[in-house]
Design goal:
By secondary structure, the chain is of the alpha/beta class. The protein has three domains: about 130 residues, 3-Layer(aba) Sandwich (Rossmann fold); about 150 residues, Reverse transcriptase/Diguanylate cyclase domain (Alpha-Beta Plaits, 2-Layer Sandwich); about 210 residues, Hypothetical protein af1432. About 55% of the residues lie in helices and about 10% in strands. It has a five-stranded parallel sheet with strand order 2-1-3-4-5, with helices on both faces. Strands 7-8-6-11 form a four-stranded antiparallel sheet, with helices on both faces. It comes from Tepidiforma bonchosmolovskayae.
Length: about 525
């Protein structure tokens, strides 16, 4: 009776027997023929290979001693041509060496002579069944790997990290251990794709993954969580330790440069948020907290986390308005890259303006204008063509008109997401002059809001001292001289003197600390 454990994978079982002994070959044909739909007999290695070329077999039994070639070579060839077949090696000398060589050639089992032909039937069944199980297991492993792997980058995907995090949270609760999560996002990735193409964007993702692989070591794991987002799970890590790791990752990823069509090198920047597991927190809540921290990192400059900013946007409705600025901040970072400015120009100017505003005791509305409007003051440059933004020499009249439209465009975009007039006014009028010769409104003196007059100083100083591709930034002394020269014309004279005093005092304090 046919064994109940045999499962025919593809209809009736087909078997190839390779045996040069005519009597034994006929005996095996007779016995196996009682159970099989088809059995083929080859009396040499050449005949066996011809049979393998002509058809597919579910099981193969081959003597390892053949007249024209080694049966081990036949088995190796059979394994290549029929990877799903169960293969049994037949030998007259059963020892460990023979068994090892048979298995290395590709056999699933071996049988020593003499043997009962019925035994061969059962061994062939077992070999074919085991091979089917092995292939099923290998396919399942491949499918599982595919299910947990990001196709583009080859790193784990969101499904993997979701399950890994759930297990890590369970173990942390069971063992009372630490657990931290980091959420990473590539800044302005959509704009990067637009500027350099999606193929280059894909290469950036792959290089980010390689960087993470160098820094994130087991038992920590990371995965691509979304299009340009990654999540790192750090079992046993405190939040402070995780932050230090992410700063190293940030610096390493910052070394990845992308060159656009104009041959301008753009650094790859990421925003990062870190959170540690708290009592009663679910895995989803933990990731959400890290994501919120990432958005704060993306949207808030160092200047905006000062006490002045906290005071200025303490009201709930202001916080909601500030949240709308996040998208604008991301656009500004892209503008900074297109304009080849030092990437911290906007933040630098804002920080200087808030420092002076704090010293002068500006009210909350003015501080809010500086803290929110400062980082997005050049938003309107999104409409200015690259060739004008990056032009090293003087602009033509037409080019200058195009450039002078950017405050108006920036104010229009800002007004669409916030009704904070002080912020909109700063964006619109940051190029006005104290003598009325600025643009776009040709406002004069105190017609320009106080916060805007103050920011104009900080913006000009930052621009003057920032290195650009076609010129070196001015020294502090030279920039201060320019500010003083502009008193009463470009700048509010009283604010100019207060700004210069602050800059010189800060420089002295820095020199004293260095000494």
């Amino acid at each position: 009776m046919e064994p109940t454990h045999w499962r025919e994978p593809r209809g009736p079982m087909r078997v190839l027997v390779v045996e040069d002994d005519p009597a034994l070959g006929r005996l095996m044909q007779l016995v196996l023929g009682q159970h099989l739909a088809e059995i083929r007999l080859a009396r040499s290695g050449a005949e066996a290979i011809a049979e393998l070329s002509a058809g597919q077999f579910d099981a193969i039994a081959s003597d390892i001693s053949l007249p024209d070639m080694s049966g081990l070579d036949v088995i190796a060839e059979a394994r290549k041509r029929a990877p799903a077949a169960g293969i049994v090696a037949i030998t007259g000398f059963v020892d460990v060496d023979t068994a090892v060589r048979s298995m290395k050639a590709g056999a699933d089992d071996f049988l020593g002579k003499p043997f009962d032909a019925e035994i061969l039937w059962h061994v062939l069944n077992k070999a074919a069944d085991n091979r089917a199980r092995q292939i099923a297991a290998e396919q399942a492993a491949v499918y599982r790997q595919l299910a947990y792997t990001d196709a583009l980058t080859g790193c784990p995907n969101r499904r993997f990290i979701d399950e890994f995090l759930a297990d890590a949270v369970f173990r942390a609760r069971q063992e009372g251990g630490q657990l931290s999560v980091a959420y990473l996002d590539i800044d302005n990735f959509k704009l990067l794709n637009d500027f350099v193409g999606h193929e280059e964007g894909d290469r950036v993702l792959q290089r980010v993954v390689r960087t993470l692989e160098r820094h994130v070591e087991p038992p920590a794991q990371f995965a691509r969580f979304g299009g340009d987002e990654f999540v790192v799970v750090l079992p046993g890590w405190t939040e402070e330790r995780a932050r230090r790791l992410m700063e190293r990752v940030r610096r390493a990823i910052g070394q990845i440069e992308v060159v656009n069509g104009a041959r301008v090198a753009l650094p790859t920047r990421i925003s990062v948020g870190v959170a540690s597991l708290r009592e009663g927190q679910s895995p989803r809540d933990l990731v959400a907290e890290a994501e919120d921290a990432m958005y704060l990192d993306k949207a808030v400059s160092p200047a905006m986390v000062t006490a002045a900013m906290e005071r200025a946007i303490a009201q709930e409705d202001a916080l909601l308005k500030a949240g709308n600025i996040k998208a604008l901040r991301n656009l500004v970072k892209a503008i900074d890259r297109r304009d080849s400015y030092t990437r911290f120009h906007s933040d630098h100017a804002t920080q200087l303006a808030i420092r002076l505003g704090t010293e002068l005791g500006l009210d909350d509305g003015a501080m809010q204008a500086l803290a929110i409007g400062g980082p997005i003051h050049d938003l309107g440059k999104i409409v200015v063509p690259d060739e004008i933004l990056r032009k090293p020499g003087p602009l033509t009249l037409e080019e200058r008109r195009a450039m002078e439209e950017h405050p108006v465009m920036g104010a229009a975009i800002t007004a669409a997401v916030t009704d904070l007039d002080s912020v909109v006014n700063l964006v619109r009028h940051h190029h006005e002059r104290f003598d009325g010769e600025g643009y776009p409104g040709r406002l004069k003196g105190t017609e320009v809001p106080l916060a805007t007059r103050l920011f104009t100083l900080a913006d000009a100083y930052s621009a003057m001292t920032t290195d650009r591709p076609y010129r070196k930034g001015l020294t502090l002394e030279m920039a201060v001289e320019e500010i003083l020269r502009g008193r009463g014309t470009q700048f509010d004279p009283e604010l100019a003197e207060a700004f210069v005093a602050m800059i010189e005092r800060t420089a002295r304090e820095g020199a004293e600390q260095a000494a």
